[in-house]
Write a structure and sequence with these properties.
This protein is α/β, with parallel strands linked by helices and 487 residues long. The protein folds into 2 domains: 277 residues, Aldehyde Dehydrogenase, Chain A, domain 1 (3-Layer(aba) Sandwich), CATH 3.40.605; 197 residues, Aldehyde Dehydrogenase, Chain A, domain 2 (3-Layer(aba) Sandwich), CATH 3.40.309. It has 15 helices and 22 strands. Strand 7, helix 5 and strand 8 form a beta-alpha-beta unit. It is globular.
C-alpha cells in the first residue's frame, strides 16, 4: 500500500484528549495545510478551566494507578507495548502528521515515527536501572540520596517535528513515574492526539497522558503557570522560552527544561573531504526546509576551499524538487505558513540589498503551497540579520576565514549556542577546536543527530536550559532528597 493519500479524505481526531477520551471542543484557530495553503480544519483553544481539568485528571490518575510507585519493570513493559503500537500504526500516524505539517509522509514511517518508538523504549529501560545512591559517611551514619517523580509534568512541543518532540517529552516523564499534560502546536496537533490514544490502548492508565490543544497565549500560559504542574519541558523559540520563564517566575517557582533557538555554525577547513562536507551541509539546511532548531545555517569555510565547496553545495541545492507532504515521492518540505515564508524572503532581500551575493535560490517557489528555494548567500557581513537571526528556513550564509582564531570568532554567536559542525581531517585540530566551540552539541565530519539516544541535546547561552534525550532527560523528570540516618 502506498503512503500517498488524499488529504481531503483523512479522518482527523477531534477535540482535546483528557482522561483517556476525546473531549469535544469548538474550533477557534483556522488551520492551513502548508503544502497547498488550503484551510481544512479548526483547532480549539483550551482555556484555564480546561487546562485545570486536564491537570486534575492527571493528578487523580497518578494517585489511583500508583504509576510512580509500581514495580519499575512494569512501567517498562507498558512503555514497550506503546512503542510496539506506534510501529504498528506508523502509516496512520504518518498521514496524520503529514497532512498538517512540513514533514513528507515518505520520510515519517522509517524516520520520525520509528525513531520515536525507539526513544520510548530507550527511556523505558531507565525505569528499573536508575535510582538513588548510598553515599559515603562516617560509621555512625547512613547517607542516601533518594529520587522520586515530580508528579504532573507540563510539556509544550513545536510544530516542526510533532511526534518526535512528543516522544522526547512523554517518554522520559512517564518512565520516571510522572503523569503528563502536553500542549502540541496548534498548527500540527493530530499525530500527537493519536499518539496519546495509542498510549491508553497499550495499557498506560487513562489520565496519565493528556493533550490540551490551543495557542501559547491562552493555553500555554495556563499550563506553565498552573500551581499543580510540578515541572515544565518546552521546545521552541528563545522568545517563547523567555515568556515561559517569566510566567513561571510570576506564578510560582518550578524546574524547567528549555530547548530553544539556534543559529548553528558549520566550520570547514581546507583539509576536509569537500564532497562529503558539501553533502552533509546541504542536507542540514534543506532537511525540513531548514525548519529545525539545529539547522546548520552558518557556513564558515577556510578561504582557499570556499569556491569549490560553494559550487558543490549550490549544485546540490538546485536538485531539490518540492512536493506536497501527502505524496510519498516528495522529498522537499514546504514552509509552515505564508507568514513565515514572507519573513524568510524579507531577510534574504535585506541581505541582498546590503551587498550580499545570492549564489543560488533567494525566491519563493511556484505552486499552491508555501515553498522556498534553498538559498546560499555569500559576501555577507557578520552583523547582517541573515547571520544573526534564526531564520528557520532553507537559507545558508557563507563566510570565510584564514586561521583558527578567525574561524572561532566567526563561529561564536552573541546569543545562541545550540549546535555546531566541524569538518577537518586533522584529529588534533578537531579536538582542540571542539573544546573551544560554544555549543551544546558538536558534530565532527557529519551534521545531524544519529539514533544514539544516549547523547543528550541542549544548548549554551540563550539556546536553552537542561537537556533532552540521554540519561539527563530521565533524571530531569525525578527530584532528589538527601537522607541521613544516625545508626
Amino acid at each position: 500500500m502506498s503512503l500517498s493519500f488524499d488529504p481531503d479524505s483523512l479522518s482527523l481526531p477531534a477535540g482535546h484528549f483528557i482522561g483517556g477520551r476525546f473531549v469535544a471542543a469548538g474550533g477557534e484557530i483556522p488551520m492551513q495545510r502548508p503544502s497547498d495553503a488550503k484551510t481544512y480544519a479548526d483547532c480549539p483553544i483550551a482555556d484555564a478551566d480546561r487546562v485545570d481539568q486536564a491537570v486534575q485528571t492527571a493528578k487523580s490518575a497518578l494517585k489511583s494507578s500508583n504509576w510512580g510507585g509500581i514495580r519499575p519493570r512494569e512501567r517498562l513493559t507498558v512503555l514497550n507495548r506503546w512503542a510496539d503500537l506506534i510501529e504498528q500504526e506508523a502509516e496512520t500516524l504518518a498521514r496524520l502528521e503529514a497532512v498538517s505539517s512540513t514533514r513528507p509522509v515518505g520520510q515519517l514511517v522509517a524516520g520520525d515515527i520509528a525513531v520515536s518508538a525507539e526513544q520510548i523504549r530507550f527511556f523505558g529501560e531507565f525505569a528499573d536501572k536508575e535510582g538513588g545512591d548510598l553515599v559515603p559517611t562516617d560509621d555512625g551514619n547512613l547517607g542516601m540520596i533518594m529520587t522520586e517523580p515530580y508528579g504532573v509534568v507540563g510539556a509544550i512541543t513545536p510544530w516542526n517535528f510533532p511526534i518526535n518532540m512528543a516522544a522526547w517529552k512523554l517518554g522520559p516523564a512517564l518512565a520516571a513515574g510522572n503523569a503528563v499534560v502536553l500542549k502540541p502546536s496548534e498548527m500540527t496537533p493530530f499525530s500527537t492526539l493519536y499518539l496519546a490514544e495509542l498510549a491508553v490502548r497499550a495499557g498506560i492508565p487513562a489520565g496519565l497522558v493528556n493533550i490540551v490543544l490551543g495557542d501559547g497565549l491562552t493555553t500555554g500560559t495556563a499550563l506553565t503557570g498552573h500551581p499543580d504542574i510540578a515541572k515544565i519541558s518546552f521546545t521552541g523559540s528563545t522568545r517563547a522560552g523567555a515568556a515561559i520563564m517569566e510566567n513561571i517566575a510570576r506564578t510560582g517557582i518550578k524546574p524547567m527544561t528549555l530547548e530553544l533557538g539556534g543559529k548553528s555554525p558549520q566550520v570547514v577547513f581546507a583539509d576536509a573531504d569537500i564532497e562529503k562536507a558539501a553533502a552533509a551541509i546541504t542536507a542540514s539546511i534543506t532537511a525540513n526546509a531548514g525548519q529545525a532548531c539545529v539547522a546548520g545555517s552558518r557556513l564558515i569555510v577556510e578561504r582557499r576551499a570556499a569556491a569549490p565547496l560553494a559550487e558543490a553545495i549550490s549544485q546540490r541545492m538546485k536538485t531539490v524538487i518540492p512536493g506536497p507532504t501527502w505524496d510519498a515521492a516528495s522529498q522537499y518540505s514546504p514552509i509552515i505558513s505564508d507568514r513565515q515564508r514572507q519573513r524568510i524572503d524579507t531577510i534574504v532581500k535585506a541581505a541582498l540589498a546590503a551587498g550580499a551575493e545570492c549564489l543560488t535560490g533567494g525566491f519563493a517557489m511556484d505552486g499552491p503551497g508555501y515553498f522556498y528555494a534553498p538559498t546560499l548567500l555569500s559576501g555577507i557581513d557578520q552583523a547582517s540579520p541573515a547571520v544573526i537571526e534564526e531564520i528557520f528556513g532553507p537559507v545558508l550564509t557563507l563566510q570565510t576565514f584564514e586561521d583558527e582564531e578567525e574561524a572561532l570568532t566567526l563561529a561564536d554567536h552573541p546569543s545562541y549556542g545550540l549546535a555546531a559542525g566541524l569538518f577537518t581531517s586533522d584529529l588534533s585540530r578537531a579536538i582542540r577546536f571542539t573544546r573551544r566551540l560554544q555549543a551544546g552539541t558538536i558534530w565532527v565530519n557529519r551534521y545531524g543527530r544519529s539514533r544514539d539516544h544516549i547523547l543528550p541535546t541542549g544548548g549554551y547561552k540563550q539556546s536553552g536550559i537542561g537537556k533532552d534525550l540521554g540519561r539527563e532527560a530521565f533524571h530531569s523528570n525525578r527530584k532528589s532528597k538527601s537522607v541521613l540516618i544516625g545508626l
